Amino acid sequence: MTDESKQVHTPLDPDRLFSELDAKIAENHNLDRARIRAAYEMARAAHEGQKRKDGSPYVSHCVAAADIAVDMGLDEDSIVAALLHDVIEDTSLTHADIARQFGDAVADIVEGVTKLTRVQYTSKEDEQMENLRKMLMAMAKDIRVILIKIADRLHNMRTMAYQSPEKQRSKSLETMEIYAPIAHRLGIQKVKWELEDLSLQYLDPAGYQEIADSLRDRMPELEEFMKNMEQKIQARLRAEGIEATIYYRIKHIYSIYRKMYAQKLNMSGIFDLCAFRVIVDTIPDCYNVLGFIHDMFKPVPGRFKDYISTPKPNMYQSVHTTVIGSEGIPFEVQIRTWDMHHTAEYGIAAHWKYKMGDGAASLRGGDEEKFAWVRMLLENQQESDATDFFHDLKIDMFADEVFVFSPKGDVINLPVGATPIDFAYSIHSDVGNHMVGAKVNGRIVTYDYALQNGDIVEIRTSKSSPGPSRDWLNLVKSGSARTKIKQWFKKERREENVFRGREMLEDELRHCGLKLEDVLDDEITAPVLKRLCFATMDDLFAAIGYNGIAVARAANRLRDEYKARSERAEKQTVLDKINAAADRREQSAKKLSKPVQGILVEGLDNCLIKFSRCCTPVPGDEIIGFITRGQGVSIHRKDCPNYLQRSGNPENEGRWIRVGWAAEITETYVTTITIASKDRSGLIMDIATVLNTLNAKVRTLSSRAIGGGRALTNIALEVKNAGELRYIMNRLNAVPGVSEVVRSGEK
Ligand code: MN
After folding, report:
1. 188 vs 147, 347, 690, CA distance in Å?
2. Quick check: 20 pLDDT over 80?
3. Which of 37, 101, 188, 479 is least enclosed, having the fewest CB within 10 Å?
4. Domain end position, chosen among 145, 170, 203
5. Which of 153, 171, 203 is the last residue in one of the domains?
6. Distance 142 CA to ligand 1 centre (A)
7. Which domain holds residue 224?
8. How many CB atoms sit inside 10 A of residue 95's CB?
């Protein structure tokens, strides 16, 4: 061999590889081998002349991917699609070509795989990675697309040795960050491990080698040990009457690697390198086996985990324990049923396969929420065939979300139905506000285009853009875009907003039967503005204009305030009339001159005032003056019988004069009252007691019997005004035996 020959790989013979696959497929009688072979023929013809980096015909990769799909237990369409998975991307065949011969389902899967293949990947921070994983799963829609993509990636990783160092690194990183976690999420542990170990080989060759070398050095010892342990356990279980299959293995390199780095250990510090798997028929046997193993070996405290009663989110079930073997070497034991084993090996695919195989498998436990959709589908498909099952098995975990790329390769997560406008605002408000166009996957799209998973979105901006349009508010799906658009209108378009808001409010008020002018009154607007937290009406108009406040809300408040004011105004009118009357009285009183003894006389100053004896008026009484001959003005109550009698007399015409009480009166006035009562002993004493209690200033008090057992009592007393007098009279009225209290002159 020459030096060059080291790198020369014996090219694989695809036909031989396919016959081996065909033989494997033949074991499964449900599969149509002729159809699968036809797919192989199509792929071979399409990829004719293309070579892999190792020099093998390209179609060997397709056969290998199909082989992995068969191992995963995928259905016939999946195997056909796996064989054809690269023809759309790398050959002249189209979706239609595939659909014509193998049906839409196969063509759709191949197209789905092609889309995933086209997704550009650049390593990002964790959150971006998670979004990218979700995007791929959301894009796949059909779970088979993801599973075939994983099979494709697994084979590419297996043959990565022939690629350039750069490609080895970038593909390994992508595998580690994207595909291994997806495999884990789908419960395909075996594939996940292999992907991780293959990736590690290129990402940290030295670290990988250190572990691999160390394991190789210890392998004879460990092999010997594991064989020994396996025999011991098997013997015990047989003695206990338990049928079990036991596998053992050295743990996969990446899991040892991670432990070493996480716990800062070197290889010799790594606790358990050996793992045993005991597979039994029933769940009670799982726990029985656990008991026997703990009886045989010393368990390491804190290492027992029961994933049977509490399965992992990806439906993984087993009981785990770590024990110390006879040579002092610790090892892990996983105990599970065959059901659980299939789930652990092939995840979702295993469920389908197993289900279809004997119809006995069922899902137990599991993460109710995360995989409820899988369970539901599994339960619903009992009578349907495999194709229907997979057809229905859409990945709807991210049904509310859509994942798209920025031109830089960032994954942007938006609500389903989001448009380029949502995207622009999610990048930055400025991008949204200056947006003048959008391209998706290199093509110009309209603003209402609904973004699809995996779209690469590019926003054209311009400094001279007119800014967002109000229609955009109807196109966006994300709250943050809506908020940002509103903010723009709030800030940038005040005048326009004021004008628009004013019109909107005018319209709305018209529905309430009001005009805008009706409510533009401080008395109405001030409380409304305060309530709605605006400084001025323009601010309110502006807010209505940019939809910062619902116009109906503003209109209703104004209408309510308008109504309240109208009611107040009505009340005010009445009050005004009363006040006006009072004002007029005051005015006319002012025309009167200076008061004498609390009395103002129209047109006369300092005239002599006499209070008539007949009716003894006090302030509060309506009064009238009579000009006497030589004795000044005599003051009568307007209800004085003398006045009423004489006022009509023409002889006295011109002698009655308007008079009034002064505004402030300090004097007291003598008036007289008459009490009609029973003539009883002690009556005077009782009346005197009341008057005394009330501090009434009594001038004279006389009482006389008028026959029939009745008496009249006359009292002259000083009071400030009619109110005080009325009070005193009411109290006197309550004296036992009193039938009436009247002012003199009333009878
Ligand atoms: Mn491929």
Report:
1. 10, 5, 108
2. yes
3. 479
4. 203
5. 203
6. 18
7. 207-355
8. 16
